[in-house]
């Protein structure tokens, strides 16, 4: 049984209202070809070798995909960043605060497990860093803000890893506040997918970026409102632009299982891997384990916590069954 709505463009429904018409939609929708035509003269600065280096396992990407989808997005973001810098200078003049440090432009990237967020984030970061004015671009994932496994285990939350309650949201908010406030050097906890945990004593340093991409499952989720009415900011309150990478539930399920089986032949075989045990079981048992992990953990998290945030994004990229982005929805200003 399928719980998740189809991606934009598949049923003709609007991602927010569910209506079959664009009349009430806050989004303007583009077919792949319509979006590709908006590239204008944005240059292609990535090679096939770059793509091979940037893509994640089981997330195919081609030069044609970069040209059709990511170059128009890079052009749009260049216009948005320039406009935001103009607003910052106007605010400086108004506040008579000419010495105030320019705040980084922060882009949030959300979506399900296995939808390809890591590849999208890395490609976008590489393109933005190669603009003519060579801005400093940093990329941070919210995995580092997952609570350590010891704390999750003590609280009985290991089977809820990736759900909102498994994150140190207060630390993530402090990190984004400090970055947005123009602090010169800000640190984030470092996470290892190999050991499936934070790396004790290790940090990811972010130092005065012009653009920061923040990628993770939870970046568009609202804060849990306290009963006393105290105002708590959303993570997305610190974003200047946000992207939701979308896919149909059946495809996400298939991509997750395929990735799991590929990792079983690669990373899971490392003696240090948290998932080493899965490399030793028979293939049929491994398939059953992957299905169970999707059905009991990743699918509920998608339906309950991730998919409902789709309508909060500035831009929605909808993938087809082959990982090819088939349509784009841009929030109207």
Automatic annotation (TrEMBL):
Residues 106-261 form the Phosphoribulokinase/uridine kinase domain. One of its GO terms (cellular component) is cytoplasm. ATP binds at residues 111-118. One of its GO terms (molecular function) is ATP binding. Pathway: Cofactor biosynthesis; coenzyme A biosynthesis; CoA from (R)-pantothenate: step 1/5. Gene3D superfamilies: P-loop containing nucleotide triphosphate hydrolases (3.40.50.300). Coiled coil: none annotated. Residues 1-25 are annotated as: Disordered. It is an enzyme of class 2 (transferase). Keywords: ATP-binding, Coenzyme A biosynthesis, Cytoplasm, Kinase, Nucleotide-binding, Transferase. This is Pantothenate kinase. It comes from Methylobacterium radiodurans. The lineage of its organism: Bacteria, Pseudomonadati, Pseudomonadota, Alphaproteobacteria, Hyphomicrobiales.
């Amino acid at each position: 049984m399928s719980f998740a709505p189809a991606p934009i463009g598949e049923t003709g429904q609007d991602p927010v209202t569910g209506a079959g018409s664009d009349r009430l939609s806050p989004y303007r929708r583009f077919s792949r070809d319509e979006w590709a035509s908006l590239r204008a003269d944005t240059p292609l600065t990535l090679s096939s070798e770059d793509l091979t280096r940037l893509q994640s396992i089981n997330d195919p990407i081609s030069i044609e995909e970069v040209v059709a989808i990511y170059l128009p997005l890079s052009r749009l973001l260049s216009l948005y960043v320039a406009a935001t810098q103009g607003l910052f200078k106007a605010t400086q003049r108004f506040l008579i605060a000419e010495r105030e440090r320019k705040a980084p432009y922060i882009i949030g990237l959300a979506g399900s497990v296995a939808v390809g967020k890591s590849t999208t984030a890395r490609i976008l970061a590489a393109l933005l860093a190669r603009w003519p004015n060579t801005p400093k671009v940093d990329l941070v994932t919210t995995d580092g803000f997952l609570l350590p496994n010891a704390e999750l285990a003590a609280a009985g939350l290991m089977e809820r890893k990736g759900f909102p309650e498994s994150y140190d949201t207060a630390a993530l908010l402090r990190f984004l506040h400090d970055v947005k406030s123009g602090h010169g050097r800000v640190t984030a906890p470092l996470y290892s997918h190999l050991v499936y945990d934070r790396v004790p004593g290790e940090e990811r340093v972010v130092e005065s970026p012009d653009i920061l991409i923040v990628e993770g499952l939870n970046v568009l989720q609202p804060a849990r409102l306290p009963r006393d009415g105290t105002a708590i900011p959303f993570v997305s309150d610190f974003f200047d632009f946000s992207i939701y990478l979308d896919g149909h539930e059946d495809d996400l399920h298939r991509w997750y299982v395929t990735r799991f089986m590929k990792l079983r032949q690669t990373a899971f075989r490392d003696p240090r891997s948290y998932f080493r045990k899965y490399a030793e079981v028979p293939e049929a048992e491994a398939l059953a384990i992957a299905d169970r992990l999707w059905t009991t953990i990743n699918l509920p998290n998608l339906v309950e916590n991730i998919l409902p945030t789709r309508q909060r994004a500035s831009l929605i990229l909808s993938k087809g069954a082959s990982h090819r982005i088939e349509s784009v929805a841009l929030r109207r200003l």
